[in-house]
């Protein structure tokens, strides 16, 4: 994670873009890139079409997911968030919200279990 963050920061800093990367604009960019992931699947109605587009546009999906990850790394760095630790903590929280004996095979929200 650290090496990837360093690469992203070097790319940004070489271009003097930090001046544009406040928390609000990074959050906005992250969401915009995430919607580009969603756009790849827009208007696909059945699972076969969804699976097909995922295969046909795999590189486009990879590019958009990389953009989302890039903005996530920048935001976490700038706000002093350890993403690895944050993910571990979130998994622990979700494990408590969604115990296996209640959540396995269910699509219900934790408040409905």
Automatic annotation (TrEMBL):
User: Listed GO molecular functions?
Assistant: nucleoside triphosphate diphosphatase activity
Report which superkingdom the organism of origin falls in: Bacteria
* InterPro entries (UniProt xref): dCTP_Pyrophosphatase, DCTPP
Under SUPFAM superfamilies, the record lists: all-alpha NTP pyrophosphatases (SSF101386)
GO terms (BP aspect): nucleoside triphosphate catabolic process
Know the name of this protein? Answer: Nucleotide pyrophosphohydrolase
- Species whose genome carries this gene: Halopseudomonas pelagia
